[in-house]
């Protein structure tokens, strides 16, 4: 916290793959997560339906909109996954094949199988 009683927080949102928008804010002491998101104006382009479906985390831990902020917090606005990570991994593995993927893909010359 700065001497004048303000908090420094960062609001981060990834609207699309490999595109990240972030906003550094200075908030009053005791500010809420919802206030920081509103002041960041990162969600202004989204419709109300999409905004209601978004989840929020602070440093990767699920948070509510009424949680109090602390100095240095990083608020992450999350969107739904398009593909289940387990399914994506299975499909990627099936496409690559067992020989070219995984822990044992590159063997040392003269090394034993599985090491």
Automatic annotation (TrEMBL):
Pfam families for the chain: Ub-RnfH
InterPro entries membership: Mopterin_synth/thiamin_S_b, RnfH, RnfH_sf
Family: Belongs to the UPF0125 (RnfH) family.
PANTHER family, per the entry: UPF0125 PROTEIN RATB
Annotated protein name in UniProt: UPF0125 protein RAN89_11975
């Amino acid at each position: 916290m700065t001497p004048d009683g303000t908090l420094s927080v960062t609001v981060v949102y990834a609207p699309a793959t490999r595109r990240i928008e972030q906003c550094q804010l200075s908030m009053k002491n005791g500010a809420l997560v919802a206030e920081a998101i509103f002041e960041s104006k990162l969600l202004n382009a989204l419709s109300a339906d999409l905004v209601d479906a978004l989840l929020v985390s602070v440093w990767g831990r699920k948070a509510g909109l009424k949680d109090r902020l602390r100095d240095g917090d990083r608020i992450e606005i999350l969107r739904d996954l398009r593909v289940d990570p387990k399914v994506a991994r299975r499909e990627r593995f099936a496409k690559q094949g067992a020989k070219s993927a995984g822990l044992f893909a590159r063997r040392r010359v003269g090394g034993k199988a599985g090491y």
